[in-house]
Design goal:
elongated, 5-stranded mixed β-barrel, 28% strand, alpha+beta, BirA Bifunctional Protein, domain 2, 417 residues, Rossmann fold, 21 strands, homodimer
């Protein structure tokens, strides 16, 4: 894409009311637009990153046997009354609205109830289970305060997966598989090294739930990490008894602030029972369905990547989720030969499927470089006076390393770093 | 996909409160789930169709130079007060909600205001225009009654495109281009023959707006079609004066009920003026931005295809948007050789990229055929006693025509109908 065609521009300053670093950088880069406190829109560059993250998650969900659906935002109170989650005293961050034809509706803050109800209408026999259903859909949380940018919004898209199993054992086995899929996701978006499977508070059906926590000073949580075992314990369940149970040595644990980028938990039979989801076993007897719930906030994950991988110059995207593979910057300053060289390279790169953001704007070199650093593509190709038909400078964003490479190297994305 | 793995099942009957044929068939086929009146969820098969339609629209929008974004559901009243569209007396189908921290918010019933405001923050010079911005996002309409299934819901996803031009001429030219893109879309989803560019009521800035109306007895609109010129006039603007202006002969017009599957209209400078969007022209003077708005309801388009192309046996998908290319139905009845033949064919078809729904359920042939007709894939491959390694029966859904074809024909999707 030619940068001059993009309707967004970079900005020197973020809005004054924006305190989080992730949102500041994303707004300055033209990735997102702040609609109001806790509500952000995705602009073209932001949407490209969002979709790449979404697709990584989708691939991992499909590999688990997940079936993708799309459930509504508007929520029928009847389902939530059945599980005793409608009352504002029970759930304190509902957004509710009213039908002109009479009656209240809710806005989805999660989707256990409607998805369980829909599955109940399709499942009757042990042959119909297990099933795994997921979607990407907006969630709405009526938060009193918002200060974490796109990491904790009033409106955000979450991938939520629900598992429906015939027994605790079947649920336990799938729960472990999801844990591995989640580790794959966080590794694939570039957070693998600093993200830990974390023991957190459970519920009636399970002593622990599990979170995936990414170490960051901007985090709202506190965890204690065993770096050898690569697991952590959330502050909220950190007791001598728990440490003993998990065979962890308090002296070996490292305290850190962290961002919860995913969570998985066992729901037991609570929702299925309340919403009439059961099945006939092999003997024709009614049996209970054991559920699990598995969430990842897509926007939060995007914000976390920005927050923890950025540097003083701007965003640093991992190649897997960068909006473009390379940022092609021409420094022709009116020299038509250089411009021609850059134009040709742009066409050739696109022809072989390299995703290119092409800065062909009539702007000073310094400004182009500053914008390029702020936008954070993994590689920058510079076409200027030193360039020839088969010799171009390429700079790696993460560490600023430079190389002079051939056109073939650029076309095959084989830069030799 | 193996049909036994799908968590949805077909149903003999639709819910009693569902009066529309499109929703009845889609619910019976397990394509959608009715959450409540006017609110439907997409189940796995429905989501596959939805995404194919979405992608056709996306391709056409990108070909126009459209830049995709994703704007929020929650709406800031300030923007809507600026254009005098916040008051319930002005817009009678708002859903509104309240912030716990104080103040009202709206749920998006359209997105002119937020997108115009965001563009205003990015555009300053004549060099920044024209720009075309679109997204796919949920809209919420607080309708008193709902009776058209997924063709008129309280919650639905719309593609809305907004154009920002420097002059009326620039807007007029783009408006025509969008008209052609829309005709491409309706042709590509299988409705080209029965969809008409229709003159409808305009506004302050333009005498007419234009709708795309698909002929259907289930339609809520009445249009008068000139079948030679392939244009129509909406009942609401059907006067002698208009006929004269459009050089139409009343005696040649055919009256029909129709479904509005798309609309395009010129907004003039109203929204841009109200929200502070202007630009500096070549002489450095402030100039007004001329806007256009272009909508297609994705779910409504899906429902319309079902409504107008179905037959007494069920849904009939055009190949371009069918959830699967073929429905492979095995009639082994326990015969392992036949089952092996079908299993191999399933693997081979998938290996060459044919999308296959494989009915390998242990079910009677009659039930399999009835389900297959209801689900409506464009082609059904039957593997039974008559099949050999290189000879299979294929049935075309739209007219029931049968052929016996080679495996090569199946693998190349070259059936010779």
């Amino acid at each position: 894409m030619k940068q001059s065609h993009l309707f967004t521009k970079t900005r020197k300053d973020a809005p004054k009311d924006e305190v989080s670093e992730n949102a500041q950088l994303l707004i300055r880069g033209g990735y997102i637009h702040k609609e109001m406190a806790g509500v952000y829109d995705l602009l073209p560059l932001g949407l490209r990153v969002f979709k790449k993250i979404e697709n990584i998650i989708r691939e991992e969900m499909n590999a688990l046997g997940g079936q993708e659906v799309s459930f509504s935002v508007l929520q029928n109170p009847e389902l939530w009354k059945a599980t005793d989650r409608w009352d504002d005293k029970k759930i304190d961050n509902w957004f509710k609205t009213e039908l002109k034809s009479g009656g209240e509706l809710g806005l989805s803050f999660t989707h256990e109830e409607p998805i369980t109800k829909a599955v109940a209408m399709q499942v009757s026999s042990y042959r119909d289970l297990p099933r795994y259903v997921y979607h990407f859909q907006s969630k709405f949380r009526n938060e009193l305060r918002t200060k974490s940018g796109i990491m904790r919004g009033r409106e955000f898209v979450m991938k939520d997966l629900y598992s429906f199993c015939r027994s605790e054992e079947e649920l336990d086995a799938f729960y472990k598989e999801v844990g591995i899929a989640y580790e794959n996701i966080f590794r694939r978006v570039g957070l693998g090294d600093i993200t830990y499977l974390t023991f957190a508070s459970g519920g009636v059906f399970s002593k622990f739930s599990h979170e995936f926590q990414t170490v960051s000073t901007a985090g709202e949580d506190t965890i204690y990490i065993d770096t050898e075992k690569r697991i952590a314990v959330n502050d909220e369940v950190m007791t001598e008894e728990v440490l003993e149970e998990l065979s962890l040595d308090r002296n070996k644990l490292v305290e850190a602030k962290s961002i919860e980028v995913g969570n998985i938990f066992k729901l037991g039979t609570k929702y299925a029972d309340a919403l009439g989801l059961k099945y006939k076993d092999k003997d024709g007897k009614d049996a209970e369905v054991h559920m699990g719930s598995y969430g990842i906030g897509v926007g939060r994950l995007l914000g976390t990547v920005v927050e923890v991988l950025c540097d003083e110059k701007g965003i640093v995207w991992p190649a897997s989720i960068a909006p473009f593979d390379v940022h092609l910057v021409e420094l022709s300053q009116g020299d038509e030969k250089i411009r021609g060289l850059a134009d040709s390279l742009y066409e050739e790169l696109q022809a072989v499927g390299v995703e290119v953001l092409y800065d062909e704007r009539d702007t000073r070199a310094g400004e182009k470089f500053a914008d390029s650093d702020l936008l954070g593509m993994p590689y920058r190709i510079v076409v200027g006076r030193q360039s020839t038909e088969d010799s171009f400078e390429i700079v790696r964003r993460v560490d600023g390393l430079k190389k002079t490479v051939s056109k073939r190297a650029l076309l095959t994305q084989n830069y030799g770093f």
